[in-house]
Description:
With 188 residues, the chain is mainly beta. The protein has two helices and eleven strands; from the N terminus they run αββββββαβββββ. 13% of the residues lie in helices and 53% in strands. The relative contact order is 0.18. It has a single domain, classed as Lipocalin (Beta Barrel), CATH 2.40.128. It has an eight-stranded antiparallel barrel.
Amino acid sequence: MKKHLAFAFAASLSSFAIAAPETYVIDGKHTMPRFEYSHFGYSTQTSRFDNTSGKIILDRAAKSGSVEVTIDAKSVNTGSALFNEHIQAADFFDTVMFPTITYKSRSLKFDGDKLAAVEGDLTVKGVTKPVTLTVTSFHCMPHPMLKKDACGANATAKIKRSEFNAGKHAPYVSDEVTLVIPVEAVKE
């Protein structure tokens, strides 16, 4: 009987170890948030940020965790060096005064075992607004090259740039911006 109790106790301890929160470091080479907007109704323009960092903490058993992301606003990549400078000016990102864009979660929402949404706060140009990221895909597995656990996701959200003091030329250049965020993170 004592052996059965000892085994049950040991098994319960191992389940706590499995359920513990895990920390993942964002892989900046595979995490390049994009933003899309209508340009005078002619076309949808897409630009990205090349430098992103942060951490994701996941407790999949408890269906909880947190997300903290920092984007280097000076790493904006529109495909044109001249437009990169223009969009970093005070009318848009104002990277001299506000060199980073941040996102900090308040809660993670799961649908079964899959991460479905992240509710949090986006800060652009010193303005913080609540933004919910809809997770369109979520996958964790051992990374075949790094030999560590890794997770990846794609998330989207729509924001109004005027709410972040970056609404110049609206409505001709659309006020509504679609954020598309592919993220990969490797377990510490």
